[in-house]
Amino acid sequence: MRYLSPNSKLVLASHNAGKLREFSTLLAESGITVLSAGELDLPEPEETEDSFAGNAAIKALAAAKASGLPALADDSGFCVSALDGKPGVYSARWGGPSKDMTLAMERVHREMGDNPDHRAFFVAALCLAWPDGETQTVQGECHGTVVWPPRGTQGHGYDPMFVPEGETRTFAEMPESDKNAISHRGRALELFLKRFIEK
Ligand SMILES: O=c1nc[nH]c2c1ncn2[C@H]1C[C@H](O)[C@@H](COP(=O)(O)OP(=O)(O)OP(=O)(O)O)O1
Ligand SMILES: [Mg+2]
Prior knowledge:
Elements: E1 9-12, H1 17-27, E2 33-36, H2 52-67, E3 71-80, H3 101-112, E4 119-129, E5 135-146, E6 162-164, H4 176-182, H5 184-196
Parallel strand pairs: 1-2, 1-3
Antiparallel strand pairs: 3-4, 4-5, 5-6
């Protein structure tokens, strides 16, 4: 286990604007200087693994090796019980080549049909990779239910069709701070800060 110093630079190996927004809020108080893969012009590697942790490692390692800095990647997805966990690691790909999330949500809705099981959860695997190839991973989940039609304009991805447990609002109807307090990404990042940052 290697620790990240709180005054070090960290590359966020993601090209997803919604994720990057949430990370910058969640890391704001840590003292860590965050650079994004986009601003460093890092390429987007192909996500060829069949697990969230595997794909997070591909993205984090590619960014760490290309930049010479520690890199943090997030591989996440939406797992619907009635669809045996799909779209899962294919969540982004269900939006087609243009990552159209309206299309992706419609496909989830269509494939669920009239199945009365509306349970679903989000998963985020966060991998911290070092330029020498070492990796360490944490994972967070957030469970809840699928709703249709989609509601709300905040957030990103599948947020408008997901109500977390104990809530009546979808993720897209909440201010970002409320989502971050209970989300898969918020939970994973809490573990990340607790376990991987030098005290
Ligand atoms: O909090 C979330 N709220 C709603 N939807 C979410 C969330 N978190 C992940 N998701 C969805 C978006 C995307 O369709 C897929 C992640 O795919 P994933 O490959 O990890 O990310 P991505 O391709 O959008 O960006 P990148 O790989 O550059 O980080 O799951
Ligand atoms: Mg991706």
